[in-house]
Amino acid sequence: MAGYPRTLTEFEAMFSTEEACRAYLSKLRWPDGFVCPRCQSRASWSTHRDLFACAACGRQVSVIAGTVFQGTRKPLTLWFRAIWWVTTQKTGASALSLQKILGLSSYQTAWTWLHKLRRAMVRPGRDRLSGRVEVDETYVGGEEEGVSGRQTHKKALVVIAAEEDGTRTGRIRMRRIASASRKELHAFVQASVESGSTVHTDGWSPYQGLEALGYTHDVTVVSSQEESASQLLPRVHRVASLLKRWLRGTHQGAVSREHLDYYLDEFTFRFNRRTSRDRGKLFYRLLQQAVAVEPTSYRQMVKHARGRRTGDHKI
Length: 315
Ligand SMILES: [Zn+2]
What we know:
globular; alpha/beta
């Protein structure tokens, strides 16, 4: 594992030049040395700037091609500063605050960078939750902060899973769903919770049938008027209220339904690492995942968003 900075001073010393950033990315991307994406050969030579040339097939590979940094015109030092800021601030950053901090002239660039980084916040093939897991749904409301002005949308339905860790909450998973149907809830549980685990829900009938999928299903039903769902499933309800507070606070409620999934990923990334004192390790993890996920263009990000497109800018 490559070293990572633990303080701002160390960060500034490590990543003051493009060369240093590129060398770090190539170490993360190819920890055992360069591997040609075309022919898997390990022999290469460096050409100018960030290009590797495969010694076997001649393919030229940029260290940022096929990563979230693909096609960027901005210096990697600026990207690294964005990632440092995003991971060292406990609640993250809104596009507006990131724009100010980095001195970016374009709000759209800050917005797009944050969305690109959110796509790196889900680890491909990550582990599922296990043990005893609470599952329940909640409504999340939102407005779009995006590039085409504010638009109010209807509330979105989000299903949340939270591990019971004694009296505390372990890891979480969440997903936006179209409806609280059996099909969607079962699919979420299967994607998020290891079979053999205990799934703890309320009496909502679409949850029935989880035993047939390999789970132990523990149902707690509201038995009196005094009991509320938040007492029966306290962890998911606490997570839901933290999520809503974060969307209202950090993002000022300015999140559209089209992009909500990625905010859920960011919230989950932060929540599951909330007790980590070592923020530098989060920086390292996010960079590591940023070179492992496929790039997404601004055009792809706004493809499904409503309203006027603002053009195909390179950011
Ligand atoms: Zn090759």
